[in-house]
Amino acid sequence: MLVWRLAWRNLWRHRGRSLVVGGILFLGASLLTFGNGVVSGMERGMDRQVVESFTGDVVVASDKQVDDAVFLSMMGKEVEPLYHIHSIQGLVDSQPWVRGSLPIGKNMVMALHEEDGSPGYIFLLGVDFAKWKKFFPGAFKLEAGTIPQPGSTGIVMPTGANTQLYQQMGQVFMPEGVTDTSLLPSDARKVRPSNIRHEVVLMGFSNSMTAFDQRLKVVGLGRYKALNTIWGKFALADIESYRSVLGYLRQDEKVSLSPEEKSLLTSNDLDDLLSGKPQAKTAPAADSIAAQTDPGTDPIWNLLLVKIKGMDAATGARRLDTLFKRAHLPARAMPWNKAVGVIGSMAMLIRGALLGFAALLFVVAGIVIANTLAMSALERTTEIGMMRAVGATRTFIARLMLSETAVLAAAFGGGGLLTGVLAVALVPFAGFRTGNDLLQMVYGGEVFHPLLRAPDLVACAVELALLVALASLYPMKLAASIAPLDAMARE
Amino acid sequence: MNVVEIRSLVKDYPLGNTVVHALRGVDLDIPKGSLMSIVGPSGSGKTTLLNIVGCVDTASSGSVKVGGEETTRLSDRRLTDLRLRTIGFIFQTFNLVPVLTALENVEFPLLLQGGLSTGKVREKARALLASVGLDEHEKHKPAELSGGQRQRVAIARALVTDPSLVLADEPTANLDSETGESILLLMQTMNQERGTTFVFSTHDPQVLRYARDVVRIHDGRFEGA
Known about the structure:
The complex is a heterodimer.
Chain A: H1 2-13, H2 15-55, E1 58-62, H3 85-93, E2 98-112, E3 120-127, H4 129-135, E4 140-145, E5 155-158, H5 159-169, E6 172-173, E7 196-197, E8 199-204, E9 213-224, H6 228-231, E10 234-238, H7 239-246, E11 248-249, H8 259-266, H9 270-275, E12 292-293, E13 303-308, H10 313-326, E14 331-335, H11 336-339, H12 342-379, H13 381-389, H14 394-430, H15 437-443, H16 454-480, H17 484-490
Parallel strand pairs in A: 3-10, 5-9, 6-7, 11-12
Antiparallel strand pairs in A: 1-13, 1-14, 2-3, 2-8, 2-13, 4-9, 5-10, 8-9
Helix pairs in contact in A: 1-14, 2-12, 2-14, 2-15, 2-16, 12-16, 13-17, 14-16
Chain B: E1 2-15, E2 18-31, E3 35-39, H1 46-53, E4 61-66, E5 69-70, H2 76-85, E6 87-90, H3 102-113, H4 118-131, H5 147-159, E7 165-169, H6 177-194, E8 197-202, E9 213-218, E10 221-222
Parallel strand pairs in B: 3-8, 3-9, 6-7, 7-8
Antiparallel strand pairs in B: 1-2, 1-4, 4-5, 9-10
Helix pairs in contact in B: 3-4, 3-5, 4-5, 5-6
């Protein structure tokens, strides 16, 4: 009680100094709170724009897959086929912390120009449309045409894919009967009508060179609701068409050939083919001409997207990896931020920069507060020395200094915290918008929308308390070390 | 019975390349209930002697016993405790806590000691403040009091813990002669009424008539010793 009374009155007596330290605490607390709000908003935004719209929390790929960046791989490097999907998905779905899983195909494909022009390249997702829409509800907005129904085939072109193909091939792809070019990306709207196509010939390419050409009808046109300039480069095809493009067959779809038939098929001599008498002495190895097949009878996919609950993506990935190893399944898991490659790194970088700024603020505020309090302790040498002379212990003096800072922290830091909360609550109403994907990551969506949850507020309060405790350490030590004799020497 | 026993007390201060000999082997006994004055010119060593007896400074060598305890071997915590419970201090410049009222300043050592209820602490402090004639100024802050009134508060604060020894370092130095005499008179009264041992230093021969015992110090030695 005595300590608090003294602390309060000392603060009032040295109002100027109290205002300086209080002002720093106020500013630090409000910036810290707002910064935490931005980081949380960004995390929620990333969650909505990436995890809940495109990747899930954890991405499972083949254990042969070397690179983690399975979505935005450099130079469109092939994503390995994922075999034994039934066992893998069964194991994943049996975990209580898994919300759901969705297998997809994903690879880069070449769009062939049918009039001797340059080909184009896009990423192609092979999906079961009904399941994909259920797994990522509201992630894709169809602007024209349809989404293929179960059993039907076709490709849905997002704006980014059309932009890319227009730049590379000079052609754009729209569903039959759709002529409204305003649905196209702005730079592709001037396209000549003859270069508007309703079908696209795709050829998958893979390390084993087993892909086929496949003509696909363009059935839909649309855009991803979040990060469309990034995800828009991913066209969506029904899984059967995708498998045909990539040359993925199941074991039961594999055709067995006799050595003569294999030899015949690999012959370059047309006469041999027609006569049925191949001249080749030895048949080539079967796998050099066979399509890629699942060792079992499961359909082939490339990735299994997994949504989890109650833990972060990295932990979920680690747990799945352990499960796969135990079950001897040829799969490995990675958190979403690794799977999206550079985008994930960029998000982490932005988050790191924001946290770094907060840390810098923390350090600078700490140094200024510590310095001001230390100066104050030295100014009060006579008073402190006299208290020590009449029997105050070093602990009492240290508690007095800490109490003064604690009162300031509670009043000004608390005020700063509330101001930060208020700013976080009001900023979304200002309607700061951006179309830039990178800024969307920081904004947490199209509109700048910082977010503070109860744990964030607790974290802010703890950080503030830590700042005050750390900043008080040196002044406390300095004040406690003042001896009665120091006070007398001052006189 | 002696409250203080000093034997062969030496205090040296290093000052650059030289050493200042503040006390050169002093012996002194201060009996309980004394009203002793230590007299000497500036730089004679009287403040150093009071500081060592008051446990705010340490001896270079020798022995100092306060209330039977050898202070030269005590830890900082024990010395602080000794200052709080056994010794009362009155400083030259009436050092009071500026943010506390006169009454709260008197309460201060009692609150540090703990053990008494808030009511008892207040009651005791009020009684002491009344005994030094400041009962009407209990709510005044030090800045609102005169020099003499502040020194009276300091005396009340020094006495509130019922110490065996009160040390006053030139308590009248910053007061006009009339106020100074009233302060010494008050100390004399307290000594007689409460039996508290008072030791005060001064360089003013005019105030010696208030002391029962006088010790003269010069160049770190007692005169006639």
